[in-house]
Amino acid sequence: MSGWRLAQMNVGTLLYPTGDPRVAGFMGALDEINALAEASPGFVWRLQSASGNATDIKTSDDPNFIVNMSLWESADSLFDFVYKTAHRLVMAQRRDWFAKPERAYMVLWWVPAGTVPSVEEGLARLAHLEAHGPSAHAFTFKAKFPPPDESGGGADMGPEPWCVGWR
User: CA within 20 to 30 Å of 159's CA: 89, 91, 108, 114, which one?
Assistant: First the structure.
């Protein structure tokens, strides 16, 4: 097992407050999708508050801005969860619940095994990706970098066939 874990953060701005019936489909799916993640091969950790999810962890003045973070043993294990499980079906409905992103909304990076990144670190990595593009410091499935103790970089994992893009 590698001495590194893959951290991921994705962010979004809900179109309506979490208690609004128009986002009930999203809110109602959280427990099932979180349980699916936790049962998935390669899952290590996910951000959550006492509520069991991260929708009430506020990181900005916008109450509809939410973050999601998790740790995985590998990029392949995260990729399989994101694109090859029921998570993909929920993700396909995101246009109904979230504003179309105008900036980078997902970032990946490596952390030493046994450490858990902070939300602030995730937001900083996302900002770095937005400002500088993919690098070993902050990347995406489209330009994946290996753990720091391996060589290579910028490999495309080919998410397009699985990804449901924005209109």
Answer: 114
